[in-house]
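Lab notebook, page 48
Experiment: co-folding of the full assembly
Goal: obtain a model of how the components sit together before planning crosslinking
Operator: M.T.
Materials (sequences as entered):
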Amino acid sequence: MLTDAGPGLGAAPARTRIARQAGRSQAFRRVLPFVEAAALVVALAVPIVLSERTDLVTLATNVLILSLLAISFDLCWGLSGIMSFGQALFFGVAGYAIALVGRDLEFSQLWGTLPLAMLVGLLLAGLFAAFLLLGRKPPTSIFVALGTLTGSYAAERLVSGWQYVGAGNGLSSVKLLQFGSYEFVEGAAFYFLALALLLLVYAGARFLKRSQLGLVLAGMRQNEERLAFFGYRVQLFKALVFSLAGMVAGLGGALYSYHQGFIGPGNMGPGLSTTAVLYCLLGGSGTLIGPVIGTVTVEVLSYVLSDIDAIKQFWPVILGLVLLTVVMFQPKGILGMLVSDRERIGSYGRRRGGR
Amino acid sequence: MALLQIRGVCKTFRTLRALDGVDIDVEAGTFHGLIGPNGSGKSTLLKAIAGAHFADTGTIVFDGHDITRVTPYERARAGLSLKFQITAVLSELSVYDNVLLATQSSESLTRLLLSSSRRALDGEVSGLLERFRLIDRADDLAGELSHGEQQWLEIAMALALKPKLLLLDEPTGGMSPEERHVTGKLLEPIKAHCTLIIVEHDLHFIRDICDQLTVLDQGKVLDQGDVEAIQRSTKVQQVFTTRV
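Observation: model returned without errors.
Model output:
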């Protein structure tokens, strides 16, 4: 008989036993639901607490919209291991699409333009996925990263020289978003619209992450070759998630365009694409709420630093150093300090006494 | 007709000819052992069957279908399952989730998204964990298992696919003699529904569980036959006494 190979066969070696106990204690310590609940409370309170400060409500709305872009990247990288440096492409193209529909067709009804923006993001990301992910041989992460980065850069350059879409000046005076005869201007109404859409997207992404499909994505992120030997069409799963992420980015792009009243080449270029990476890594990738926290941190820091006279000239450098420090010394992001790997990756089967 | 027919399979890595015109038939319901000195091409052949490598020339016919140029995913769907030589459990997932991941691989995308089969598969997953003595470790991370337990988890995952042909690459590698004995006992019951090809260095282990043996040497088939015939083979004895 076996004596020390495992608990089913006898006494476990001390090292294994200690590691197991550590694993269990980690497994039972769930932090994310509390962080999510706290974030929701704060998000609901913001327009009430800041009702006197329109500029801060505008900033908060912007944060919610950019959080969609951050979640879009987290779906790719945090959940599925797809390194996309081009999420702003889908954000920007969708933003341009609804701006053009408003300008040329004088149509900006919420029920028509937001689904259109999502469709644009979905189809464009699907097209990229077909080229980058669905080849005969599985692509490397570097290939996908460079492919998406190049797409983002090429689109920015293309739009910068195209007069029909405003060239380098972009499209300004974007028609206001409408629902019937009601027009969404900057302020509490737009904030709650953005919050409602962010919550819907978040709930959908959370549902995906916790589903059996989420388990496939978690496995894929760790060892996609292993999953192919299980019979999973790994590249197809990747293409699907990448397209869905494009759809989310498209929704964000449309809201951004309506909220700012402007969309320009910079909103689809590598600058914003890498900022989305930063939001996600800073907050904690793979957690969904982490990228939202990362977006809040970056945008609020930018706002505060750019408003201090003494460092007005240098704030991007200071911000850059702060972020570099966090990424270097806390690679799992801000939430990595609170959330265990076990909770971040998720548990899909039953757990004794755990839930 | 044999479940697996390998004809003239060659595989070269740069200047190294790892497989050189291999011909093997594997009958359904048998346990077939691949043995040979280090570098004889055993693992390369197993990987060529599973699709981790494509054969340069020759054909591999499985269950009547030519799978020579077919992707690993399609081979897995056709009923081939491989346990890697180096354990490839998903260390950041729980033991239970590793087996669930394998068990749910035939589910449709919609059912996966809606988690429709999570409850239904629980009995199957738990049964496999029970059978491979891992049920008490179900909630632990797979990376926390001992080496022997990871090997068992790998076999459980390979069997979770309900394969027609199971390919095991050194399933007892790094195990104690007791663990090897238990592994042999764990594999015995699968004979009723599954054919097995096994690469193994432990000749006692392979002699105990296999019906047929193929001996590879320098990428070629040196000899084939039942265990007794191979034990009597002077060609095989010569290779094993001089080079193993």
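Interpretation: Residues 4-80+169-179+195-243 of chain B form a domain with the Rossmann fold fold (CATH 3.40.50.300).
Next step: discuss with group before ordering constructs.
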